[in-house]
Amino acid sequence: MRKIGTGIVAIAATTVLLAGCSGGSSPSESGNADGGSGGTLVVWTDANRAPAIEAAAKAFEEETGTKVELVQKNFEDIRNDFINQVPTGEGPDITVGAHDFLGSFVSAGVVDTIDLGDKAEQIEQVAVDAFTYDGQVYGFPYALETMALIQNTDLVGEEAPTSWDDMIARAQAAGAERPFVINTAGQKGDAYTMYGFQTSFGAPVFVQDASGSYTTEIGMGGPAGEAFASWLGAHGEAGSGEISTTIDYDTNNELFASGTAAYTVQGPWAIEALTADGVNVKVNPIPSAGGETAAPFVGVQGFYISSESSNKLLAQEFLTTYLATDDAQRALYEADPRLPAWKTLAAEVSSDPVVAGFLASAANGVPQPSLPEMGSVWELWGAAQAQIIKGGDAVTAWNTMVTDVEAAIG
């Protein structure tokens, strides 16, 4: 993830945000609740996306008479600041944010639903699902990120392996020193990176309902979860050894970049490191280890509307009319190249085979749960995986973890 500079800076091309002005101000100051012209719409963004949003903001100002103030913030501060400031009337009308902010936003009552209308058809379904909570859509999604299989084409060619076993066999036939490496965050375990393999056994962390929303029902218990745990142990340090707690993020990337490993699972943020020494790569969907489709986590970026905004209709119009265009989406992509959720732009940038590979993997994926309960899951989940990889009793460790998670989330 790219680090953003510190401070809150009003974008020079827009009206400077003065202390006390906000999306929660009165209709006479900030437009009216019926969506009429005049007033001001306040948008929080980070440095990377600010220039792209400015273009849509200028068109919105010219056509509606409503000024748009872009307030530049550190991305890592947005979740807490939004939760703390919206109830006081000091928050914005709109903020950029990750979809996994959603659970805490809904719990705090600081975010409003949004009607995507026919624009939903232009957005990848996994992105809409990511911003769906209890059957309601709470944001305008625009970008994705996910994990995928990355292979050294000088060793194993470009053809995607059909399964885990096929992948290992191809690497061994090519004479690779290490057939496969994957980041386990050292001794902590990395359930996020491993999730594609886990879902291929039909063992999701939480069960999704028909609307795409996550329930709090644990989905990784029972025979499916036990089968994944047994597989993980069989390929861990006491088994065939492809998965090891000695591999952290940097070690993983170094082993692949040096040509030592034929395959890895990584995200688009790692491509520069993986190819730093000249290795040629192909990106493909993660192969199945358990017989079902490998569904990695998908992270989604988008825009939220404050529940306390006096300009909700104007905010929705800005998002679903002025940002929901090919030009606006292209500008966002060019400013901060993340996988587009906008289908026409995704098709356009898929001329880059690396982008195409990650988009193909995302098409198989599922949103990372935005439930507040996830905060009680990560550490227990990762620790169980690390214990299994190191040679612990796989089924016992897994079932203990599931019981502990169920107790932790109540």
Describe what you observe in this structure.
It is globular and about 65 Å long. Helix 2 packs antiparallel against helix 13, helix 9 packs across helix 17 and helix 16 packs antiparallel against helix 17. The longest helix is centred in the C-terminal third of the chain and has 16 residues. Strands 1, 2, 3, 4, 5, 8, 15, 16 and 17 form a nine-stranded mixed beta sheet that branches. The chain has a four-stranded mixed beta sheet with strand order 10-13-9-14, sandwiched between helices. The two termini are 32 Å apart. It is an alpha+beta fold. Helices cover 39% and strands 18% of the residues. It has 17 helices and 17 strands. InterPro entries: Maltose/Cyclodextrin-bd, SBP. This is Extracellular solute-binding protein. Keywords: Signal, Sugar transport, Transport.
